[in-house]
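Researcher: Next sequence.
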Amino acid sequence: MIFLAFALHIEAQPYITKFNLKKVHNINNIRIYKNENIAAVITGTGVINAAAGLSGLFASYYENKDDIFINIGLAGGSKENKIGEVFIINKIMGINYDEYYPDISGHPFKESSLRTILRKDINKIETKEGLLDLEGEGYYNVAQNYVYQNNIHIIKILSDYNDTRHLNIEKIKNILKDTSEEVIEYIKVLDNIKCNHRPDFTEKEIKLIDKIVGNFMLSNYLKIDFKKKALDYKIRENDLVKLLEDFSDVKVFDKKNRRTKYDELCKKLEIFKK
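Model: Next structure:
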């Protein structure tokens, strides 16, 4: 099952329409929409509502830790980024400054940190980097009790520069409409991975991987990291053999050179589409 969580109906509407989700529950402002393999909840705003609403969704439809959770919502941020840009969150700072680090891998978005704040602090807190929202910590705290860390995806769309006073419904609708296609394609990729399970490496791929590990003199940690990135690359239907062959004869001679070459390889492996 893929679980989607939204604070507001306006955030959820493009996804309800695209995935043909039908309302199955509406109690205490918690609305649940569902099709055969996607369950979505509109929780209301704030960290408490987020946690309560998502807990209710999992209680009703949770299957196993391989389920996927995605929060999609608006966030404020600095003027260094453009309104309407989509971010996947790589770090969350909570209301009490607790820190969480989602385990993210291949994706087509920019990455950002996220700070969850209280409603009373809206329009008061300025941030020079990262994004601000009201729900992220609540969603993450609940989701990590149900699904694997690498199946938690917090996606935020920059809607304002930490000043919501100039936002209006039409502007928000346009931002969400313009970004929904990109996010929907990402959800489809995650769904495809879940349905088909993670493939194994072929014998040829294993030989090439082992050769690169030796040539690059990778530590055990980097070896695991490399294999994970390679598998993610393969899942996205890229030609893994060709990429590995391109790097199979590269040799490194010191730590600095290894870091440079390994970063170059990882950059190639993180390409989201063919």
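Model: The first strand starts at residue 2 and ends at 6. The mean pLDDT is 88.
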